[in-house]
Specification:
By secondary structure, this protein is α+β, with helices and mostly antiparallel strands. It is built from three helices and five strands. It has a single domain (6-99), classed as RnfH-like (Ubiquitin-like (UB roll)), CATH 3.10.20.
C-alpha cells in the first residue's frame, strides 16, 4: 500500500455450527462493505448476500457505507428465521395453557 495509512479491523460471521473472525489491515477510509469484500469471507460463505444480510459494528446495525475506525469489528448478520414478536407470543400462549 503506497504509504497509505492502514487500520486494523475485524470481520465476523457466525453460523450455528461455525464462527469466523478475520482480522485484516485496510486503508483508512475503508467502509464496512469494502472490509467485508476485502476479507474474503464472501468467497468462503457464498450464502452471504450483502443486499439481504444486514451488517453492523459491535452489535449495532450500520449502513454499508459507514467508514471504519481502528479496531472496529464488522459483523454480518444472518436473516431471522422467525419473527421475534411472533415467537414470544407463541411462548406466552403455551405458558398460559400450561398454567390454566
Amino acid at each position: 500500500m503506497d504509504n497509505q495509512e492502514t487500520i486494523f479491523v475485524e470481520v465476523a460471521y457466525a453460523l450455528p455450527e461455525e464462527q469466523v473472525l478475520l482480522g485484516l489491515d485496510v486503508p483508512e477510509g475503508t467502509t464496512a462493505e469494502q472490509a467485508v469484500k476485502l476479507s474474503g469471507i464472501l468467497e468462503r460463505f457464498p450464502n452471504i448476500d450483502l443486499a439481504k444480510n444486514k451488517i453492523g459494528i459491535f452489535g449495532k446495525v450500520t449502513k454499508p457505507d459507514t467508514v471504519l475506525r481502528e479496531k472496529d469489528r464488522v459483523e454480518i448478520y444472518r436473516p431471522l428465521i422467525a419473527d421475534p414478536k411472533e415467537s414470544r407470543r407463541r411462548r406466552a400462549e403455551k405458558k398460559e395453557t400450561r398454567t390454566a
